[in-house]
Amino acid sequence: MWRNFTLFVIIFSILLIPLITFANTNPETSKVLAKAAKLQIPFVENKGQIQDMSIKFYANTFAGNVYVTGKGEIVYGLVRDEGYMPIRETLIGAASPNINGESKAVTQVNYFVGNKDNWKSSISTWDSVNLGEVYEGVELKLKAYGNNVEKLFYVNECGDVDDIRLKFDGVEDLAINEKGELEIETDIGTVKFTKPFAYQEIDGKRVEVKCDFVIAREQSDRCNLSIYGFQVASYDKNYPLVIDPLLSSTFIGSSNHDEFAYFTRDAAGNIFVTGYSLSSNYPTTSGAYDRTYNTNKDVVVSKINGNLTSLLSSTFVGGSSDDTAGQIIIDAEGNILVSGGTLSSNFPTTSNAYDRVYHGAWDAFVFKMDSTLSNLIASTFIGGTNYDISRRTLIDLSGNIIISGVTYSADYPTTIGVYDSFYNGGVDIFVSKLNNNLTSLLCSTFIGGSSDDDGEAQLLDSSDNIFINGKTNSSDYPTTTGAFDITYSGGTDAFVSKLDNNLTSLLSSTLIGGNKDEYSYDIALGSSDNLYLAGETFSSGAYSFPVTSGAYDTTFNGGPRDAFLCEFTDDLSTLLASTIFGGNSDEGVLSIVIDTSGNIYCFGTTGSSNFPTTLGAYDRTFNGAVDFFVSKFDSSLTNLLASTFIGGSIDDWSQQMIIDPDGNIYIGGVSASSNYPTTLGAYDKTFNGSYDMVISKFDPNLSSGTDSDGDGILDPSDNCPVVPNPDQADYNNNGKGDVCDPPPPTLIELSFFDAIQHGKKILITWQTATEVDNLGFNILRSESESGPYEKINKKLIKAKGSSTKGASYNFKDTKIEQGKTYWYILEDIDSNNGPTKHDPVKAEGKSGKVKTKKKNKRK
Known about the structure:
mainly beta, single chain, 4 domains, 19-stranded antiparallel β-sheet, globular
């Protein structure tokens, strides 16, 4: 009977597809890898549709089948070129399992194969399988996904993690790699189990506990390592060890290039994402509007739950040529609207749409779908005979649809009485308003000068006026009397312009820039309809980007460009606040949002290793190439409240950010980094190739902890006083040796240490997980666990030196007496820490009687 206490949970997964690693990946395997989805797969109860009645539940993953037998065995049937390769896993010394399905899934299975008498219908499926209390105080559950099978051990206060021991039948050797993953060599390559993740739920909080695999030999087999278990670190039951503000993070993608455009959040907290894909295997869902890739670039729309763990629906939308998406929004009925551009003459449109005729080159489009992504409610072209593409979409107070973008078309459709019905040359900006059903063009205008003008974002103020921003090369870009800056500064200037809702008047318009180029990418509305503008600047020196007194940073930081953030009054006449910020390389802001307290979050991309971050940020270390950043300023732009990196080792390109009612921050973009950070349970934790869309969710403080005692240092218990101590080495490089300095790193880690008697000798074996500057080992022996111990090797047992994969060693003790009990201690010698003794292990005076070490930690 399970009681209500704090549970200790160990979670790890077998990596099937696509994380399985093949020594020689063949084309057929690559196809399987490419098609593997990341959805949770239900377990099916065996009601006789499988003749082997020892099988109680099974799940059909994209890698093969997973079976659970009545004895509690787990059998993985992995796909290979011909048929399947089985791997059977058993629990050693476990109690008889009580196997049941848990969390009944909505899916039901019908089995109509063979003789009609054997047909089965409406077979129940389950989100997980519970094997019950397999050891005293230890419960085991299984979950299946498209690319892995997850085992969850729940250990209550009566349970012991050391009791958990598992074995793979027919597997000769196990190994632990440098990432802490468990590896099994098979005929089709290396099967991996993810490094185990352990945590506790204490007072409603999840507290992570360090956990690693340990491997050992079976008593009857002294040559092969076929058993594994877990080793957990000590933990403080009253204080969280880790607080992870990266609440969730996921990849969305396939084997080719997937480009993120925009995303939005519905009233239920679900996230809708749009972009384009070049991948025929981009994940789509049953019942979606279009599950078939239409060649070239296709628009994709995907719906994910708010925790980023489940793909709820996903569809293609497109024609036979290139189609790209702009902004996605949600109307009052919960329908989604997407605008963009297409080269496809057969891009899908609907009956009675405003324009069902493709006009050549790129045409803009806008379409409306229901929230399940199964029905195309309305869809229309809009454009002229040249290049037209829509980037942003809005819904005004009357429910009309407003799109904006760029055009080269002199015949782009405009309407009578608008602000500007004539094409101005180069690239012009367009703003067009359609009714909610996309059947009528209500009003449409150009805006621009005689050179190139590029519109980036748009928003509505409280009076339903339309702000647009962007960048211009036109010296005659239209500005208004009394605006902050009506003078073109040369190169490319940023701009903000305000039009009335009917597009008949340019209410206000200003430029902003320095002596070089400025690009403005996003705008946001603050209190009193003050407008915040963000982007990037190349201007430095005497004619740098305009900043205001008291701003966070008024000095250009070097490198080609800095990020900028500024605030205007609603009429664009006054620059209320303006700051630049960055490091010694490239950065720019792509998206901004404002919280209920008036703080401004900036999301962008940086190549600067010294980009400003703040104490307690999620990630203060530049990860390489190009990283995302998220920075939080107060409303006056004088204080940087929080700032963090997030990214992997290759390129990560930002696109958009949104904020939820609780103040949590969602960011989206594309990544070429296979090690972009994802979180436990995320919809897709696997990089799918080329560029993937990524979405991450932060808490409002972007933090990794709280400096609760105000000592200026974040540490696990956060109670470390900075007291200088001349005898303490300065390991954390804070300029003083003090009690806050952690101990020197453990440079030699053990996987196991065993002593096994064979007749008149005892064979002592051990394996290291990692070694750094290892000089060698000594073996110490005693007839009592408490000692005294004496060294029994005459010479230092030579080590490998340094290795991230570790090494195996052995030593024979031939000077023993029958019937006596011996204890052994392994002492390692490294050039940094000197000698270090590990916990003792006991060898009985009988052949085959072995006590293996349960914990390998330094004494």
